[in-house]
Amino acid sequence: LVRIKRGLYTQTEKLKYLEQRELFGIANFLQVPSYISLMTALSYYGLTTQMQRNFLESISIKRTKRFEVEGFTFNYSKIKAELYYGFEKKEGIFIAQPEKALLDSFYLTSIGRYSLDVSSIDLTKVNEQVLEDLSCRFPLRT
Predict the structure, then answer these.
(1) Which secondary-structure segment (H or E) carries 72?
(2) What is the C-alpha to C-alpha distance for residues 40 and 38, in angstroms, rounded to an integer?
(3) What number is the average pLDDT over the span 23-48?
(4) Residue of 126, 119, 39, 123 whose CA lies nearest to 75
(5) How far out from the chain centre does Cα 107 lie?
């Protein structure tokens, strides 16, 4: 057995074959509250050419933290509570809207806590109106 978190265990072999949705669920559970965002969400929505294998990124209001579990990395970036919005529950997991994942990436990059390869982002798939609506709470430098 592999310990994921206190009280949560899985079989080593089963962990290797979990579907993306199941891994997202684990990410949501490891740090509560949190939602899938950044490159993980951008990749999920097909907005980037970059694929991250065994590396899941989430946003949290608790703390910046990294969990290593049998070759998987669950990375959490802390943001201000007033920026903790723009996500929804899909198929039992909390995930940022595509535009919010992009804003989270821009915001963390603007404060020097994230590195975003903008050239890998397909901005033609971004809804500009939603992006503008969601961006109103972010600092201007974002």
Answers:
(1) strand 72-78
(2) 6
(3) 96
(4) 39
(5) 13
Rg of the chain on CA atoms, in Å: 15
| Residue tagged 């933290």 (tokens) | 65
Token pair of 123 as six digits: 């901005």
| Predicted confidence (pLDDT) per residue in 82-116, tens digit | 999 999 999 999 999 999 999 999 999 999 999 99
Cα-Cα-Cα-Cα dihedral of 108, 113, 114, 118, to 10°?
60
* Distance in angstroms (rounded) separating the CA atoms of residues 104 and 84: 10
Percent of the chain with pLDDT over 70: 100
Nearest CA among 85, 118, 112, 105 for reference residue 41? 105
Distance CA 77, CA 113 (A): 9
- How many Å apart are CA 130 and CA 110, to the nearest integer? 20
pTM above 0.85, yes or no: yes
